[in-house]
Structure formats: C-alpha cells, structure tokens
Amino acid sequence: MRFNNQNTINEILADEGIKKCIGAFFPESILYMIPDEYLSKPITVVGEEVMMPWGGPFMADDFLNAANQADDIVKNHSFKFISLWEEHSEAYIPDMSKNDETSVSLMVKSTCASSCVGKNRPAVIICPGGGYRVLSGTSEGVEFAEKMEEAGYVPFILYYRLAPNQFPKPQDDLVKAIQYVRTHADEYGVDPDDLMLMGSSAGAHLCASVAMLEVDTPNCPNKLCLNYPVINFQKEMHEDSALALVGNDSKLMDMLSVDQHITPKYPKTFLWACEDDLLVPPSNSVRMADALKEKGVEYEFHLYPQGGHGCGLAIGTSAEGWMDEMLKFMNGFSPQSTIKEITNIPELGEINKYLMFDNNLDIGQGNDFYDLTLEFMRPIGWSPEGIIKGINHLVQQVENGAKLYRVYAEEDRKADPAKEDVTIVRLIPEEIDPKKPVMILVPGGGYTAVSVVVEAYPAAADFVNCGYQVFVMTYRIGGFGQFPKPMEDVAQVIRFIFSHSVEFDIDTNEYVLNGYSAGGNLVCTFGTRENGYEKYGLQKPKAILPIYGVLRVKEFAHKNMDIVEDMLKRMFGEHYKVSDIEKYDIMSHLDEEYPPCYAVHGLADSLSELESEKYLKEGLDRHNIPCVVETIPTAGHGFGDGTGTDAAGWVERAVDFIEKI
C-alpha cells in the first residue's frame, strides 16, 4: 500500500487521478464535512478527533483503503472504467465529482477480457447503495465483486448518477450498463442470458425498479439479488431515497413502488434484510417477498435477526452467510454445499452414483466424508467454484438429453459385475463439429476412487464451450480394478464411442485422452504401445493431456506415505512386486510413436511430482514429439479446470495446442 495513516487527506488528493476516481470507493460528500484545518493533519488524527454529523468518528480506515484502491487503479491499471455515455480511451478515469453523464461508468478488472473470453460465464452488475445521494463503492461494490468473481461470475460495478439527478437518469444508466454487458458478451466471456443485477439499499431499488420497468423488453435482467432493499415509496419508506430520486412527485412514488407492480414475468429474485435495520424498514423486503409469492415468481427471502443496515458482506453478524445462500439459490449450490448434496441430485438419476465413485478416502478429520463442505476441501486443492460450474453444466446437459452409457455388453457385465460400473456420460456443444476429435476425460482418485465431480465435469464444461464432444468415464478401481483392467476399460470406452459413430455424429477416429492424477497415470500408460493403444488394436490418440499426473510410479513408490502404498496395492494387488511396477513404468516405454502431450502441474502440489512431467517432456523431446508442460505457481493437487485458481484457462490453452498439432 502506498498510503498509510500518517499521510494527510491533502497529500492523497494532490494526485489528480486519485482525486478524480476516489469517489468510486468513498463518498466524497463526507470529505466536505471535515474542517479545513484537518485536511493537512495525519489521517489517524482526523479519525481520532473529527466527529461526523451522525455522531460517529471519521471513517479513517475506510478512506485509507479507498485511497489505496484508487492509487492501484491509477498506477497499476488493475481495474478499468468503461464510459457508458461517451467514447473514451482505455486509460479513461471518470471524474466522480462531476456526477453527470461523463462520470457514469462500469468498473471491471483490466485482465477480465483476456482471462474470461470463451468461457461463457454468468455476469453480475453490482449497484452500490447510498440513498441515491452517495455510493458505498467499497463495502457494497469492490468487496462484492471479489466474492462474485470467486464464485465464477464476471463482475461489473456500476457508478450511476446521483442527486440532484433524478428519475429516470439512474435507471437509464443501469439500462445502458445491461446493454453494454450483453453486446460485449463475447469480449468478456459472458453468457448474455445469464445476467444478474445485485444492488444494496437504494442500489437494490435501482435494480428492482429497472427489472420492473424493463420486464417485457430485451433489457430485463435474468435474475436479481436485493440486499436490504428500498422497495416502496409510499408506506414505511426510506424517505431520503424517495426524495433524492423523485422529489415529491406522488405519481412517480406510486410508479416506483416496486412491490405494487410485480408480474409473473419478473426475474428470479433473492432478497434479504435484517430485523434490526433502523434505516430502511425491513417491511420493504417482506412486502416484496409477498408480492413475488403472489405472482408466482421464483424467489427466496431471508430475514436475519441481526446485522443492521449497510452491512455489506455482514461479517460477524447473523447475516454473514447471505451470499452463500444466494449462490445456492441462483446456481443450485454454493461453496457451503456438502459433498452429499452435490452427489445426490434428483435430476441426474443413476449418474449420481458415479459423481464420486467408491470413495474410501480418510480425509474427514472425524467427520463423515460426504458431510464435508466444498469449502472445507479448498485447502487440499479443490476448486468449489469449478465443481459448482461443472455440476450445473451437467444438470443442464441432462435436461437436454445427456445420459449414462454402460460400455460393456450385458454378458460381459454378468461375467464380471465390476464392469457394470464402467460408464461414460456424453456432453455435447450446441453445434457438433464432426471434424473435432472427441475428448475422453479420465478422473483420478488414487485408483481408490474416481473423483468425477471434482475433476472431469468442470473441465468438461470448458471443453464443450470450445466446441468439443466430451465423454466422461469411470473405470474399475480397487480390488476389482487391478492392472491391466483400467487399461481394458479405456480401450472399451474408445471402441464403444466409435461403434456409435452415427449416433454420436463422429466422422473421424481421432480422440484425445485427458487424465487427472491417477487418471493422468492411466492415460499416459495407455499412450504407450506395449501397454496401451497398440496392445488393444486401437489407433494412437491425437494427444494426451495429463493434469497433475502421477507418471513416475517407480519413484512415487519410494515415498513413505500411506496413500502411496494404498494406491500401489490398488494398482497391483496386496502382494505387488517391483517387477509389476516396472512393467507399467511410462518412462521406460516412451518411443517415436508416443502421442503429443500437454501437461499441467501446480508448483504447490504436495502429492504428485512435477518431475514426472519434466521427465516426460525430456523423453518426448528426444523423439521430436510435441510436448508442453505448463507449470502453475500456486496451484495444488485436484484443481480440476482451475476455476478460481491461477490454473484457470488451461483448458483453452490445451485446446490451442491440440488444434495446432
């Protein structure tokens, strides 16, 4: 941070760029309340000695945080402002003090377009509150944006016109923002049909009123999140918001009392308030919930006992979990969802059994594994946001007809009941391109489990978005799946897919194998002629994509870890020999007919070794076979598609590799 509490307000505002945009993070009107003699005193002194008209001290920490955020934007261009009413350059910084069309803007991360393009993520436009007079741009803007980005959304923060600008100017600004996000959907990797408006207090009224006014137009949002909202301008209202927006115009007060004008077409809505809100009566939210219920609109309402007004993320209050509740309502799940919840989805039927197949891992710290939350698993490397994205995509695919196939014939399954669990689920893009190779995804799990929901379905959503048909497979594991049975299963999956080429609209025999952890070991073993594709009479894969793969089993066996010993027993039996390990050593079987590889590995992976991929590349380089090893600085083990981590985007980079070979 550039500024600290020994700096003065005058020192900070001497920078013209910071002076122009600090209003995006801290209400400038508050600065006008500070006596002139304190503008040149350290901020810590101002916080100790200056009292605000409402009886509290000057918010020194909030101002300091706002100054450093503004400085970061000016100096490092971490965020960019998009002017909505005028054309400006990429370096545009609005002058918030002007409070006119020139200052109306959307703020978005500068790297958003390059990192999100092609991902088709949901978007959210965040409208901070402040009674239509100021904007709480940090606690109800930037902090929300950070959390929504972690949840897989592309967040935009709207800085709209305030009093003395009155209706319809703020509403016009939000409509303009909606139009911008949807018309630039491809640029930001946004799904134009999955746009949420999130507003707080008066900002919530702005969102709710625009949804009401635009409900029959292309400018209507798809869903709403209303935080302690101002709703009604006639009864138990927040008078200051009403006066700021419409003055004493009774007709406008009626028209903009949102709960009075709800129709069945109103967007899906989540709203919440706190019983101890002394500023905006929580009855506003109660009446809104009643109106939504009456009109049959899908909604969820929470009235928390304690939190007051303007509490933002509500840390330390009874409302603290509101965002998780909202995400669960909007997306079906949240990071607080349990593994049991995401593996028992009625719409998925028999697929549920294969979302976390045969898990015997002892990682629950005294809890049953399936009662753990996705958030609990984050420290070991899982991406809750990626899992949620993947499972939602799977549900959508099933709604569109996706189903589970058993790849072995009935007589084979009777002879070996474990073959009953060798399955695939086919996921398809909107338009099938038969010229693209099919993707076969092989999850890991130490040959003890098949962690399909953690690894395969998140990446499958990305591959489908890139136009590829994807087949997610399960295979025999544990005592029923000792080597070479998993290889037999991969071979049978390939045969099954190409025997259904007419049904699946496949004109080519090209395929790509993508495996994770133990699944990475499996697909790389299948890439060898002696133990893989040639042994089973199949053509060579077009490419292999091992993700944090366990590739050097001989070296892995030397690790004195229970999980390693368990994996080896699952692979080769209780009384395995060194000769068993050596027989399936990938590095010993690399030759000029090995497939090209794109490998990804996190530097923070404490389970599998980055050296595996390095040895793989060295071996393939000797045979002039294309091989890329992408290292991820902070990713651990089990990140799947990488959503919410610095591994995000590896799928698109791997696709680029495939399409160039």
Which key phrases capture this entry?
about 650 residues; eight-stranded mixed β-sheet; alpha/beta; about 35% helix
Please list the strands of the largest sheet in the order they lie side by side.
1-2-4-3-5-6-7-8
Overall mean confidence score, pLDDT: 90
Helix content: 25-40%
Rg on CA atoms, Å: 28 Å
How would a textbook summarize the main sheet?
8 strands, mixed
Give the total of beta strands: 16
* Proportion of residues in extended strands: 5-15%
Distance between the termini: 45 Å
Specify the number of helices. 27
Overall shape: it is: elongated
Task: Return residue spans where pLDDT drops below 50 for at least 5 consecutive residues.
Answer: 359-367
Structural class computed from helices and strand pairing: alpha/beta
Describe this structure in words.
With 661 residues, the chain is of the alpha/beta class. 36% of the residues lie in helices and 14% in strands. It has 27 helices and 16 strands. The chain has an 8-stranded mixed sheet with strand order 1-2-4-3-5-6-7-8, with helices on both faces. An 8-stranded mixed sheet has the order 9-10-12-11-13-14-15-16, with helices on both faces. Helix 8 packs across helix 10. The longest helix has 17 residues. The protein is elongated and about 85 Å long. About 1% of the residues have low confidence.
